[in-house]
Amino acid sequence: MQPANADLNNEQVARPPSSHRVSIITLNWNCYEVTRDCLASLEKIDFPDHEVVLVDNGSTDGSADKLATEFPSVRLIRNQHNLGFAAGNNVGIRDVLACGADYVLLLNNDTIVAPDFLSKMVRVAEQQPLVGIVNPKILYYEPANRIWYAGGSHKLGWSFAKQFGVNQIDTGKYDQPREVTFSTGCAMLMRSQVIREIGLLDEAFFFGFEDLDWCIRARKAGYKAYYEPAAVVWHHVGFVTKRNLGKAAKDFEYVRNSVILARKYFRAWHWFSYIPSLGWFLAYRTVGYLVRMEPQRAKALYRGMWCGAMARINGTNDNAV
């Protein structure tokens, strides 16, 4: 199975009513090739009432101009600087909510989608009014039959969310739709109603954990998150981060944002499980990085912990639409 052949799956499904408008937001930052492939795959989707909004996050490689020329039907929003994942997407979210979108789909630009993925996700939401967030099954771009996300879970007191099926061959084991407690922002469909109620992505998270934070807020508001395996997306995992920021930046944000999330939501008793969990993670990664002669990555872990402890925690009003 190859992502390039995703359009071979022509199974007919009942389409949701065209009155349910979906705005697809994808963020580009100096990544012309993968963004081009993503937008090309979106041209083949079968959902009748959608728009694609490309938010360019201060690219300096000319990719925004080239993409605008090649995909004239895509609406382009330009940010002057790289605002990060949360703030960059918030620019697009504010725009599409003002235009009356019923659903907002955040989609990483390093993905390829199956033609029917959006129809199947919207159908789940329409059948269950309390479902506020829907994720598809997400496979690695290469090898294309290996799972990256097949649902996820998180509990207060955990240092990191868990993704099901990671690196496993897709044999059908994870083909059962179900409620989840962690939804990834890689391909996340959310009701506009939920966003208006719980607010925008928290910009305290530059990238990473903003999706988990959204899940926690949505669940607190009484909404469910759902995993729909019949909808399929392929993902160049880590492509943008590795190209533009490097691995040490990812390590820094991973730990920093874990600490920010803990400070934001944890009660006193949650820290008794969180601190040993984070400590084990730091020790394990530190040893591994030093053995591989990557001291800058080890240093990034502890800078992340310090910066997370010192960061400003946003209040409810800071996330308002």
Question: How would you portray this structure in words?
Answer:
- By secondary structure, this protein is of the alpha/beta class.
- It is 39% helix and 20% strand.
- The protein contains 10 helices and 12 strands.
- The strands form 2 sheets. Strands 1, 2, 3, 4, 5, 6, 7, 10, 11 and 12 form a 10-stranded mixed sheet that branches. Strands 8-9 form a two-stranded antiparallel ribbon.
- The longest helix is centred in the last third of the chain and has 21 residues, at 271-291.
- The model is unreliable at 4-18 (pLDDT under 50).
CATH class annotation of the largest domain:
Alpha Beta
* Global morphology: globular
Structure class: alpha/beta
Q: Examine the secondary-structure arrangement and name the CATH architecture of the largest domain.
A: Alpha-Beta Complex
- Low-confidence stretches are 4-18
User: What fold name stands as the CATH topology of the largest domain?
Assistant: Spore Coat Polysaccharide Biosynthesis Protein SpsA, Chain A
Helix content: 25-40%
The helix tally amounts to: 10
The number of distinct structural domains comes to: 2
